[in-house]
Amino acid sequence: TGMLGYIEWIDARTIAWSSEGMKLAFLAMSSLYMLFPALNARHLRRRSASAIRVAREVITELNDRTRQLEEATRRTEEASRLKTEFMRNVSHELRTPMNGIVGMTELALLSDMPENQRLYLNTVGECSENLLKMIQNLLDFSALEGEQIQLRSNRSACVGR
Length: 161
Hints:
The structure is a single chain. This protein has 161 residues and is mainly alpha-helical. It contains 3 helices and no strands. Helix 2 (17-110) packs antiparallel against helix 3. The longest helix is centred in the middle third of the chain and has 94 residues, at 17-110. The chain is rod-shaped, with a radius of gyration of 47 Å. The N and C termini lie far apart (113 Å).
């Protein structure tokens, strides 16, 4: 309206206010029509930038956690391997002297001796054989855990029982 007033009063031209007013109203409405999508686009750009920033932070956090889990898994697998190796070594180291005790007890039982000594040696023999069985079970377990043996079905051994 300021421009129309300038034209009419300063330039001294006659203006059709009704048609020019309609033009001005159309221009104002067009400006508003284009302003709202622009404001909406700016708002969406800000929200998109914020969402991208959050997504990047989440991805970084997930990558960090994945690396931590991979490291923890590696350490756990290494600890399990070391435990299995330790159990295997200990079982072998215990089994050798126990075989000696069992064998020497059996040899001693073949000799002449008083009945009370024979009773004592029988007890030593039974206990050492039981201990040897436990050691053998440990050895089997550590070999199974270390995936060095495979289980197979022995169905023919059970037939007829």
